[in-house]
Amino acid sequence: MGVFESVAGAVGGTPLVRLNRVVEGVRARVYVKLEYLNPGGSVKDRAALGMLVAAERAGELRAGGTVVEASSGNTGLGLAGLAAARGYRVVVVVPDRVSAEKKALLRAYGAEVHETPGLRPVGHPEQLRTVALRLTAEIPGAWFAGQYDNPANPAAHRETTGPEIWRQTGGRVTHFVAGVGTGGTITGAGEFLKEASGGAVRVIGADPVTSVYGGGDGRIWYVEAVGHFLHPETAADEWPESYHPEVLDGIERIPDAEAIRILHRVAREEGLLLGGSSGTAIAAALRTARTLGPDDVVVVIAPDSGRAYLSKYYSDEWLGSLGFPLTTVTDEPTIGAV
Ligand code: PMP
Fold first, then answer.
1. Which protein residue has the closest C-alpha to ligand 1 atom 12?
2. pLDDT digits 0-9 by tens, 3-23
3. 226 lines ligand 1 (CB under 6 A)
4. Which pTM was predicted?
5. ipTM of the complex as predicted
6. 98, 68 contact by CB (below 8 A)
């Protein structure tokens, strides 16, 4: 076990856990990388630390400064904890559909939370990033983290997530699956794994079915923190700089109901309580794994824990209000036909 001089040292080094019971029809081994074991509770600790260190080195963030970010929660949380330990003030702009628990968590770290209506198009005055940029301009000594376009985000995964997976599998990983939000995880870890394996590792994105990354029309979906809803005709011109689509070999387009169904099964049959985007990613990993043989090793990123979503994906009331299958009726062994 590591001993660290501050919270930053405890970021990364997360375990892989094999899926054993939700894998009917799968011959490949499927391992989930448990990113909720980061100190801030998600994969975004990695990007948050990478962006903070890069900004300090570049002189963009100085003692007593303010960290501003637009985030659906986890990047804000990662920044809030790491910045608190470094003495910075933190302001996070979140869309109002973010769970109440995540907002309370941000405030618990001392961050200031600004809510916007969310799902506004790029450039709209109420759009998340626009609000964050306005606050950055207004606050003296403020620095905007900008996870969507900050090269330190994918770089953090190139330097930590990718090498960890390579080491943990002894170089035997054949497929890497991750959801795409900013694209930082799949881009950085994917680039590293491709390089390390001489191009052999296949990199598969997991995307909500209506998100534009996988070719959807941008209509609303309910699994938060993954996908993008840019206008489908111009989306490719506006991809975040953290997203390098050329790293991907394919994208699995996952309906919310399929993501939520596997999420419930993974909690009840594997003992892993994960967030909604983990459901999206694991559904994609299982679809991929069903096409593979016994020598294949699939690694899938589980970005955060289900604890922050008890009132959403794990609530019969919430699921019922949106017409999703209830947790009590999700015991069918198959996924996909939802
Ligand atoms: N899932 C969750 C829960 C997240 O917070 C994020 C980050 N927005 C992602 C998935 C996507 O990760 P990335 O931004 O690296 O694409």
1. 181
2. 999 999 999 999 999 999 999
3. yes
4. 0.93
5. 0.98
6. no
